[in-house]
Amino acid sequence: YGHFTFDPGFLATGSCESAITFIDGANGVLLHRGYPIDELATKADYLEVCYLLLHGNAPSESEYKEFVDTINRHTMVHEGIEFFFRGFRRDAHPMAMLCGTVGALSSFYHRDLDITDPAQRVRCATRLVAKLPTIAAMCYKYSIGQKFVCPQNHLSYSENFLNMMFSVPAEECKIEPAVVRAMDKIFTLHADHEQNASTSTVRLAGSSGANPYACIAAGIASLWGPAHGGANEACLTMLEEIGSVDRIDEYVAKAKDKNDPFRLMGFGHRVYKNFDPRAKVMRETCHEVLDALGINDPLLDIAMRLEKIALEDEYFISKKLYPNVDFYSGIILKAIGIPTNMFTVIFALSRTIGWISHWHEMLSQPGAKIGRPRQLYTGELPRSFTPINKD
Ligand code: CMC
């Protein structure tokens, strides 16, 4: 079988070299191209972060303008995508529609696609970043039976997404600036996170030279699970299940019970064992949005109380389990009126730049190899096959 290290869950396996994102889990550090995430979330907008992740440096004024113009030129989707959508069941999960539709982009953009050409790879990346908000909003509109809303290029990236979500052809919606800022921060805080399950999936799929749109669809599939991107949705579902502040103790006890598989969704992280620097910014944003909107929602009361109880509980302290980014992003999204089943879609939209930047980086590296993990075989020893009698 040759020699290899058995490492289920890849707890100790470095799969690539990357210059995009640095994480020091023990000290709660997250840098994109050297910049701390809290600075990026408070001083840059999401498209600047996209440029930074993809190109390696923050854009100059003219580079930024050109990048925004290019994104704006690609926000529309092919008419055929609308027909494609109509094949989905109305009650399909928006993640199922997103995964299918982004995969289908590979059938629209396959001709003359030379992935060895860096300029063509960058074009794929900008096309994806531009179209994801349009497709994500289409998933929502289709699921509620409303007409798709076209992108409006005079709006910022985040406002445009919110407009496509909440406008109807009869009336444009008015979106609070605090909500637009929060949306942009949610996008930025989810933009990349080095070799997590979905990014590794995109790299693995792309390592065979596959079509990039199909690779991103693979990333979306991997993100969907509740242990990864699905956690923000699972967290809100859990809060709904808890139902009232006086039932929190019961759920905390369940989470601590070794014989109960229940976990508090939105708590804990594989890499951050001290605090999640994204959660810190998200927590502040969460309180800003709740204050700005003056929302009175019992679910949000449960969330705030749960946060307090868990942060003071010995079990969570000793196991270094803190609310993660998805705990707070779920609460913000709920407060601004995004339905729970769209939460992971928004995570996927935000992470697309991270995935495609890793794909671009991988294909820029000389001597890149197809990803091919090994296994420990636990099956039968060699045996002889006896055909059954088919007469
Ligand atoms: N609630 C209760 N106990 C927990 C939790 C939790 N949320 N998370 C971990 N534990 C316990 C776990 O039972 C284990 O206990 P013991 O040592 O007694 O067996 C210990 O803490 C270590 O857990 P682990 O599963 O070995 O830790 P991990 O690093 O493999 O898992 C995790 C990390 C995020 C999958 C896990 O904490 C979890 O399932 N959290 C809930 C789901 C969630 O919020 N996921 C979003 C992660 S952030 C967004 C993203 O990166 O996609």
UniProtKB/TrEMBL annotation:
<dbReference type="GO" id="GO:0036440">
    <property type="term" value="F:citrate synthase activity"/>
</dbReference>
<dbReference type="InterPro" id="IPR036969">
    <property type="entry name" value="Citrate_synthase_sf"/>
</dbReference>
<keyword id="KW-0808">Transferase</keyword>
<dbReference type="InterPro" id="IPR024176">
    <property type="entry name" value="Citrate_synthase_bac-typ"/>
</dbReference>
<keyword id="KW-0816">Tricarboxylic acid cycle</keyword>
<protein>
    <recommendedName>
        <fullName>Citrate synthase</fullName>
    </recommendedName>
</protein>
<dbReference type="InterPro" id="IPR016143">
    <property type="entry name" value="Citrate_synth-like_sm_a-sub"/>
</dbReference>
<dbReference type="InterPro" id="IPR016142">
    <property type="entry name" value="Citrate_synth-like_lrg_a-sub"/>
</dbReference>
<dbReference type="InterPro" id="IPR010953">
    <property type="entry name" value="Citrate_synthase_typ-I"/>
</dbReference>
<dbReference type="Pfam" id="PF00285">
    <property type="entry name" value="Citrate_synt"/>
</dbReference>
<comment type="similarity">
    <text>Belongs to the citrate synthase family.</text>
</comment>
<dbReference type="InterPro" id="IPR002020">
    <property type="entry name" value="Citrate_synthase"/>
</dbReference>
<dbReference type="InterPro" id="IPR019810">
    <property type="entry name" value="Citrate_synthase_AS"/>
</dbReference>
<keyword id="KW-0012">Acyltransferase</keyword>
<comment type="pathway">
    <text>Carbohydrate metabolism; tricarboxylic acid cycle; isocitrate from oxaloacetate: step 1/2.</text>
</comment>
